[in-house]
């Protein structure tokens, strides 16, 4: 019984860290980052910015939205979709696991942790698929930035948490 609670606690910590990393990466406009002598160009899922001025000095910063603007490519829309679905599945997974672990009337129901594990693996799949779509279509791979990497780490954390939850709920609990 201690192994089950330990596995679920580790999974809950991984889910929390994964949600934090994915949310930061989801919102930050630093999926692509290019720096040149006279300008700095960067964008994420929702915003595209150009800073103009000598290196290290910003004279003019112009940001445009990728939601309503014409600057978004088809792969950006696909990435937005999969990252959003992944974030929703991640939140659902955390809520289901918290219900299954913390609420006394739900502790005996094995279906909640199993659903949480399935949602966690689905979140990992969507998050990682969104990063693969973006990374495969971004013109220059050496300009992928830290927000892109945070979403990858968040997706990996959700995948590991999902496997831990399913193993703890199905295999260890007979």
From TrEMBL:
It is found in: Membrane. It comes from the Eukaryota. The chain crosses the membrane at residues 85-104, 111-134, 146-172. Gene3D superfamilies: 1.20.140.150. It is a multi-pass membrane protein. Its main location: membrane. InterPro entries: PMP22/EMP/MP20/Claudin. It holds the Pfam family PMP22_Claudin. GO terms for cellular component: membrane. Keywords: Membrane, Transmembrane, Transmembrane helix. This is Claudin. It comes from Pomacea canaliculata. The lineage of its organism: Eukaryota, Metazoa, Spiralia, Lophotrochozoa, Mollusca.
């Amino acid at each position: 019984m201690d192994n089950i609670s330990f596995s679920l606690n580790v999974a809950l910590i991984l889910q929390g860290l994964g949600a934090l990393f994915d949310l930061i990466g989801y919102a930050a406009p630093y999926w692509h980052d290019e720096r040149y002598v006279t300008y700095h160009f960067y964008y994420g899922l929702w915003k595209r910015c150009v800073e103009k001025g000598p290196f290290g000095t910003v004279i003019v910063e112009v940001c445009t939205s990728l939601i309503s603007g014409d600057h978004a490519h088809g792969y950006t829309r696909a990435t937005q979709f999969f990252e959003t679905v992944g974030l929703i599945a991640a939140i659902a997974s955390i809520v289901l696991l918290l219900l299954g672990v913390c609420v006394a009337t739900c502790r005996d129901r094995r279906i909640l942790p199993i659903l949480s594990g399935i949602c966690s693996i689905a979140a990992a799949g969507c998050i990682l698929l969104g990063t693969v779509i973006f990374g495969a279509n971004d013109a220059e791979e050496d300009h992928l930035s830290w927000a892109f990497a945070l979403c990858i780490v968040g997706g990996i954390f959700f995948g590991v948490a999902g496997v831990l939850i399913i193993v703890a709920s199905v295999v260890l609990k007979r």
